[in-house]
Amino acid sequence: xxxxxxxxxxxxxxxxxxxxxxxxxxACLAAGQGQGQDQGEPRMARLVVDARTYKNCHAVGxxxxxxxxxxxxxxxxxxxxKDAKLGLQIFELVTPESLAKAARLLERGAVHVxxxxxxxxxxxxxxxxxxxxxxRAVMEREHTRLVRLEVDGVPVPLPATQAxxxxxxxxxxxxxxxxxVELVSLAGTLTEADRARLREGVALNLALAEHCxxxxxxxxxxxxxxxxxxxxxxLVSAGVLGRMSGEAMTVMSLAGSGNKGITVAVAMSLWAxxxxxxxxxxxxxxxxxxxxxxxALALACLLTSATTHRLGTLSAICGASxxxxxxxxxxxxxxxxxxxxxxxxxxxxxxxxxxxxICDGAKIGCAMKAMTGVEAAFRSAxxxxxxxxxxxxxxxxxxxxxxxLANLGRLAQHGMVGVDTEILDIMQAKLGPA
Length: 434
What we know:
Layout: H1 3-10, E1 11-15, H2 18-33, E2 44-50, H3 51-57, H4 71-80, H5 96-107, E3 111-116, E4 123-130, E5 133-140, E6 146-151, E7 154-155, H6 160-167, H7 171-176, H8 180-187, H9 192-211, H10 228-245, E8 250-254, H11 258-282, H12 290-311, H13 323-335, H14 340-354, H15 366-385, H16 401-415, H17 417-430
Parallel strand pairs: 2-3
Antiparallel strand pairs: 1-8, 2-4, 4-5, 5-6, 6-7
C-alpha cells in the first residue's frame, strides 16, 4: 500500500450522508438487474440492513429531495434512479420526476425495511422487484463494497465499475496495523498528485462549511479575524450541520464518513493558516508551509482511518469526534514539530477525555459532537506539545498511543454493544404512535 492507493480508497467524494447514499446505490444496482428502469416503475423495494446503518439513516437529510429524510426515502429514491455510476454521489440524479416516483412507491406501502441485529458490520441487502424481474444487490463492510448481484435469484458477475472497490478490502486494515512511527513515515511520502488530491478535498469541505454558516444562529460562527480556537470548531459544525441537513454539495469523505472528512480537512487547514498568520504578525515564526500542512493532513487522515478500523466502520462511539478528533490532535502535533512521543500524549488526552461519546445516528446533532471533537483536539495537541498527557494509570489510557487506541476499540466493539441496542429501541419507539 502507498498513499495514492490509500487516498483512492479512503478520501473519496460523497454527496449527502454516506449511509443513505450507500442504500440508494444498492437499490439502484438491484433495480438495474431487474430491468425496472426500462420497464416502468418498480413494484416493490425491500432492504435488510444492520442496526448501525439503519441508525445513521434514521433522521438524516437527503440532498436534492426537498428536505426529505430517512431510510425509506433513500431506498425508494435508489429504486427509481437510473445510473449507479455516480457511486456515493448518486443523489445528484434526484429530480422532481424521481421524487414523484419514489413518493408513489411509499404511498403504496411498497417499501420495506428490516433491521438484522445479528450483523455486527455494515450490511446493506436490497431487493427491487419490477415487471422485468427481481434484482438484488448486497454491500458489506464498506459503503461501496459490492459483494453480490442477482437476477431472479441467480448470481450475476459484478460490473467492472463495482468490482474495483470490492477488490480493495484491506486498505483500512493495513493502515490500522501500522505503528504511529510508520504512519508518520508514510505521511511523508506524498506525491504531487497526492497533494493535489488532498487540496481538492480541503477546498470542497471548506466550501460547504462556509456556505452553511447561515444555518447556525447569526454571529455564532465569527469572522476570519476571530480567535481560531473559537472560529474553527464552529465552522466545522456549520459544515457538518449542512451535510446532515441534506445540502446538495459534494464533500470529500474520509474513512467512509463525510463528517470525518469535513472535521479533519477544515480543522487542519484553517489551524495551519491561523498559526501562519499569527507568526507573520508576531514575527516569532514563519508559519507552516503548504507542504508541511499537507503532510500533517495526510497523517491526520491516516490516523483517522486507523482509529476507524479499531472502532468499526460504523460504531457505538461517535467517529466525527473520536476518530477524526484523534487524527487532528496527532496531526497538529506533527504540524507543530512535535515528536511521536508527544503524539502519544495527544492520543492519550483524546482517549481519556472523549471515550464514551456515543453515536446515536446521523442527524443535525452531529454538528455539536464534531465541534466538541475539534475543541478537544486543539486542547489535546496544545497540552501534548507542552509535554502534558493523561497518564496510563488513568482509566482506559494505555502505555502508548497505540495501546490507548486498542483500548478505545475494545470499548467500542465489545463494551458498548448494549448501547446500540438501546439506541435502536429508542429510535424505533419514535416511529410508533405518539
